[in-house]
Structures are given as structure tokens and as C-alpha cells.
Amino acid sequence: MRSTVPTGETMRHHWLAFTSNRRFHQAPKLVSKAEGIFYHTPQGHKLYDSLSGLWCTPLGHGNRQISEAISHQLSQLDYAPAFNVSHPLAFQLSEQIAGMAPGDLNHVLYCNSGSEAADTALKLARAYWRARGKPEKTKFIGRAKGYHGVNFGGISVGGIGPNRKVYGQTLDAYHLPHTWLTENRFSRGLPQEGDYLADALLQILEVQDASNIAAVMVEPMAGSGGVIVPSSGYLKRLRTLCDQHDILLIFDEVITGFGRMGTVFGADYFAVQPDMLTCAKALTNGIMPMGAVITSRDIYQTMMDQPGDDFMIEFPHGYTYSAHPLACAAAMASLEQLNQPSLMEQVRSLSQVFEDAIHDLKGLPLVEDIRNIGLAGAIQIQSDPAHPTKRASEISALCWDKEVYVRFGGNNLSFAPPFICSKQDIHEIFSRVADAIQQYARQQGLN
């Protein structure tokens, strides 16, 4: 089927996700083709993809190995029921993921997105404690500026205000402070200060009591919140406190999972093992919707050892498309490439180039902070008090005009280029971003 450019009349039928639809209709940003590290527009422009889509295509676009795997699977088995029936590829993929995950995280529950993975993990946490004879442990703790998708569990533990405010009462959840500190501005990689921020958990427990808390859920680094990186000992301290107070620790690795930090998982980077780990995005290189929760042996075995008849369902949860055959094929082909030591070495090598290139923008007008870790980074733009997100939004639009796709969120410009970039690609992306920032500052009389 040949695609056509939508008109103002036909455009209204598609309600875009997480988008100002009114503004989009005024100046649509459309892509019609993608290859490697580039998007192509219907008008023939070629744009750098500086965020790997939405953090999800680290192998670039048009990956032939994944395309061929999906095509082959489609010719063999297009769908298999997810309940009471399965297919061989689901077990092969689970074994592959278990082999890549840290420690005894070796049991995999499938879903269709990072949002579903977050809610699956939260439901499993409650079910686990009920199976352990502690049904009162139902509350959750997240973190300010954290993002765990858009379903009710995810926005409850999530800490981005605009994602929560219009929906009223959510789950019973409390929030640790975020890990951004003014004294850490312009840190290269891990900031120096901030281990003590994990002790805020103790203040929450003074009021809520650990006997009521099911789990703490955090990202190893807060990606959508603006690549907010914790100090080196923060997660270790959080792990210690959770162990001391009998609380599960869940890592949301939807962004950090499968190489973004130069290690397979963020848990590996920080040498901290959670009780559960959620992933999605890079799992299939963004080509097929798929998410997963990887759980510890203890959680799995606790659920399996519940009393009752063998035909009873241990965890009444799942989706029509859980472990979909085409998604499994895409994931197997994606992980075969992402699990290559040479690729992780390439990510670590590019990370230094990336760090130097993004920090070269320090000193530009309106740039009030720059943060980075692995192949992820953010440029924090000084907010207009009357319109907090306006400047980053308009700079992002100028970047589009300069043929580089840049994602903005709040007052941040976020970057997570594909792992297949060259050093020159990295420098070119930030050269264009610098031009856009300087142009905007001149236009606004702020330089």
C-alpha cells in the first residue's frame, strides 16, 4: 500500500500519543522511510536520528537480520495462543534473556511494552507478598522525575507531574527525591554527590512502615526525566536498605536495558542486582512491540510453591500477545547482535566521544546543565518561567529544520544515538544542535 501525506482534513482522525495535536496539525513532522541512523521525510529530507527512535532502535533502522527473522517466522507461525499453549521460540528467547540477565534473574514474563512491564512487575510484587503470607505489603515507592510508562501502576510510582495530574487517585505510592543536585551540574558520567539521597527511603518508612511496603521501583538512571544519573553508591545503598527492611527492589530498564550504558543492563553497570527487572524497547530493536519482566528465582519459586491443585493458575495475569511469535523472532535476532562483546566495546568507545561532544555545548546561551552516561545524555535548557517547556520545544523544532531529530521533554533535550553511529556522526549531530540553540537565543534576544 502506498502511503500518502495526510491533509488537514484526514489528519484529525489520528489522535497522536504524547503530542500536542493542535501544534502538530499546524506543522506536521512526518517520516516516510528509515535506514541506518537516518529518517527520511516525504519531502526528501534526511534527518539524523539522535534518540534511536524513542530510545528503542540501538541497531539502527532497517536491520536486515531482524527483518529476515520476522519474515521467516511469519511463514511458519504467525500467532500462537498465549494462555495454556505456547511455541518453541518463546522458550528459546527466555533462555537467552536469562543468560544475559544478572545473577539469578532467570524467569521471564512477557508483555507488549515497557508500560505493561511496569504494571506486571507491580502486580507480581503484591502477589508475591500475599503468597509469602504478608498480604498487607501493598504500597509502592517510586522516585521523583521517574518514568514507568502510562498505565495506572506506572503513573503511580512515576514521578513526572504532568503525567499524573489529570487522572485523579492512583495506587498508594510514595516517592523518593530525584537525584539531580545543583552541585553536580555539568558532571561527566557519574556525579560525585548524592549517595545519601537513598536514605530518604528511611524517612518514608518512618511514616508508612516497611511492613506495608511491597516494592521500590526506580530506573538505574532516569531517562525520560532528562537522563538524571545517580551517584556511584546510590543504588547500592538503596539495595541495602531494601534488604534490611524486607522490601523488593525493581529496576525499570526499559531504556537502559541491552547496552545503552555499555553493559547489558544498568544493573551490571552499577553492580546491583534487583529482585525484578523490566525491559522492552531494544529487546526487539523497536521493530515489534514487546516487553518483559525478569524475576528472581525466589519470586518465581514462591509463586510456583503456592498450595492448591496443579491445574490452578499461579499468577492470573497475561496478554493476548504475550510472547508473540513474531516479536520473539525479532527479539532473538536483536539479542544475537546486542550480545556480541564487540558491540558493547563499540558502545563504550563511542560513549567517550559522545561525552566530549555533548559537553562541548557547555557555555552556549540557555544551557544550564549537561548530563551523560554511556550513550545517553541530556542538555537542560533554562526555562521560561511563564512557559516551562516552550524553549526546549522550539529548539527541538529548529533541530528538525537542521535535519536532526531531537526529542524534548520538559526543559531537556535528550539524546541516545544508535550504537552503529560513527564518531563523525556524533560530532555532526551536536554541531547542528549547537547551531539550533544559538539561533534560537539570537531570535529571542537571549544570547
Automatic annotation (TrEMBL):
GO MF term set: adenosylmethionine-8-amino-7-oxononanoate transaminase activity; pyridoxal phosphate binding
Source organism of the structure: Bowmanella dokdonensis
Keywords, comma-separated and alphabetical: Aminotransferase, Pyridoxal phosphate, Transferase
Protein name: Aminotransferase class III-fold pyridoxal phosphate-dependent enzyme
Cofactor field: pyridoxal 5'-phosphate
Family, as annotated: Belongs to the class-III pyridoxal-phosphate-dependent aminotransferase family.
Gene Ontology biological-process entries: biotin biosynthetic process
Pfam families referenced in this protein's UniProt entry, alphabetically: Aminotran_3
Transmembrane segments annotated in the record for this chain: none
